[in-house]
Amino acid sequence: KIMLMPDMCAEFKDHPDNFFKVLEGVHESPALFRTGDGRIVVSPYCPGKGTATWWQESLARMDAKGIRICFVPLFQAWWNYADEFGPISDGYSDWGCAVNAEESSDARKHSPQKCHGLGKLWMSPVRPQDFRPKDYCAWESENSALFRNMWDTAISGGAEWVQLVTWNDYSEASEIAPSTGTQYSFYDLSAYYAVWFKTGQAPEIARDGLLYFYRSQALGLVSEKPQGKPFKLIGKPAEQIELLAFMKEPGTLEIEIGGRIYRQDFPAGLNSFNAPSALGRPVFRLVRAGHRAIETDAMPMDR
Prior knowledge:
Blueprint (H helix, E strand, L loop, with lengths): L16 H10 L13 E3 L9 H13 L4 E3 L2 E2 L6 H4 L5 E4 L5 H4 L2 H4 L1 H7 L3 E6 L4 E2 L4 E3 L5 H12 L4 E4 L20 H15 L9 E5 L18 E3 L5 E8 L3 E7 L2 E7 L2 E8 L6 E6 L2 E7 L6
Parallel strand pairs: 1-2, 3-4, 4-5, 5-8, 7-10
Antiparallel strand pairs: 6-7, 9-11, 11-14, 12-13, 12-15, 15-16
Helix pairs in contact: 7-8
């Protein structure tokens, strides 16, 4: 099903009424995502660009035409709008953060519980990273940590819905779909966490698997273009190579880089192991009883 999410900062910024003209044209489509009582879910991005009064009048106008709406606005810092939009909202969502350290803040980690305390449903944001070469900036996601922690917030907080904040946006490197940059890593993790979210139980690990995450360029680089400028990293830098292992049984994880081997023993389950970044081609291993159960290498970091 398709959830309608009009972007009030883009195509409807100057003519917000145009969204409702679009809605009138498609409201009977069986493809639209609806609640159990048949209402069409509308989750506008940045609805704070308009007033709550304007939204209330617009929703009432649609209701008079027989177009019933479940209104779940998606804000940046949703708590700043909760009181104003409370009377007309069935739930809330947020664009979420892109720095892993911020995800642990009270405002972020406990958003599902706070939203439920207001009697509203919660659509939890989950994003892999935010990396924008076009703007010379990135946010420190700490490899897969941001993605995993945002899923944990959704699951532990009992969120009704999850939005993968991706839109397959290759200009911001937030894509979930397999790509040359992230390969299948976030795609595979999405499958694991989506099952956990839907069933309430972490999936049983039926076979071993290794995923790896690391920054492929050193910090402090300057673009080679004539207008080049230093690349800005938002958040405390975490220069780490991460090995994320799905382990059917206990074993030892190894990361070999720069002539050194880092290793640590882990129990069965999903385990994250980190080593300091260095130039060269990392090699990742799962070892049991002295035998290499899995070994794989990655692209050169000094490419």
